[in-house]
Every structure is written in structure tokens, then in C-alpha cells.
Amino acid sequence: MSGPRKAKKRRRVRARAEILVDLREMVALRRETGRDLVALRKEVDALSHSFGAILDCLKKWSAARGVVVEGV
Predict the structure, then answer these.
(1) CA distance 36 to 42
(2) Are 69 and 40 part of one and the same domain?
(3) Which pLDDT tens digit goes with each residue over 34-58?
């Protein structure tokens, strides 16, 4: 096996290894926090939504005052 086939197999093996690492991290996170990934993901979504709302308010405030806020 050489060339493209070998490269393809390497990519598959690497992808599987990454998935296993992700699964191990999820299990470790669940053990540490006592909550599953779905609950944590919901919390993160709520926080990101709140952060987005804060950024929107900052944009409106700065636009009303003619202030340019970079990176927002």
C-alpha cells in the first residue's frame, strides 16, 4: 500500500484517534462535573446568547454616540 491509499488510511486512523480523545474528554468532564454534556452544552448556549445580547447593546450604544468599537 503506497501513495494515496496509505495517506487516506492515515487520515482515517487519525480521525478515529481524535474521536476517541473527544469521547474520553467527555467522560472525564462528566465525572468531574456530575453533569452530562447536553446539560453543559445548554449552559454554554445560554451564556453565548447572553454575551451576544451584550455585544448587540454595545454596538447600539457606540453607534448612537458615534464611537467606533473594533472587534465587535
Answers:
(1) 10
(2) yes
(3) 777 777 788 888 888 888 888 888 8
